[in-house]
């Protein structure tokens, strides 16, 4: 079975930057100015701590093929 490095719905890596559109903790849509920070406006969840860039390196290579 393959190990999955997929991000939860609402999180996305674009050009090595983590974007948090919808918080996986509280489920609310993030304030646009905090999307690129990876921090939820409403509950303070910091996706950068749970989903470091190294987790996504393989996924980016597959997406760019």
The end-to-end distance, rounded to whole angstroms, is 22 Å
| Amount of beta strand | 5-15%
Please state how the strands of the largest beta sheet are arranged side by side: 1-2
Main sheet: strands, sense, barrel: 2 strands, antiparallel
Q: Briefly note the structural class of the backbone.
A: alpha+beta
What sort of overall outline do the alpha carbons produce when their principal axes are compared?
Answer: globular
| Whole-number mean pLDDT | 83
Model regions low in confidence, pLDDT < 50 over at least 5 residues:
none
Radius of gyration: 12 Å
Annotation, overall tally of beta strands = 2
Count of discrete structural domains: 1
- Percent helix: 25-40%
Helix and strand string, N-terminal first? Answer: EEHHH
Number of helices: 3
Q: Could you explain the architecture of this structure?
A:
This protein is of the alpha+beta class. The protein has one domain (11-59). The chain is 29% helix and 12% strand. The protein has three helices and two strands, in the order E-E-H-H-H. The protein has helices at 32-35, 47-50, 53-63, and strands at residues 11-14, 17-20. A two-stranded antiparallel ribbon has the order 1-2. The model has no long low-confidence stretch (mean pLDDT 83).
Can you describe this structure in just a few lines?
29% of the residues lie in helices and 12% in strands. The chain is α+β, with helices and mostly antiparallel strands and 65 residues long.
Write the layout of secondary structure elements.
Layout: E1 11-14, E2 17-20, H1 32-35, H2 47-50, H3 53-63
Antiparallel strand pairs: 1-2
């Amino acid at each position: 079975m393959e190990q999955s490095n997929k991000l939860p719905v609402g999180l996305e890596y674009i050009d090595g930057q983590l974007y948090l559109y919808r918080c996986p903790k509280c489920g609310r849509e993030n304030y646009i100015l905090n999307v690129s920070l990876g921090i939820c406006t409403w509950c303070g969840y910091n996706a950068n701590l749970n989903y470091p860039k190294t987790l996504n390196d393989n996924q980016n290579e597959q997406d760019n093929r």
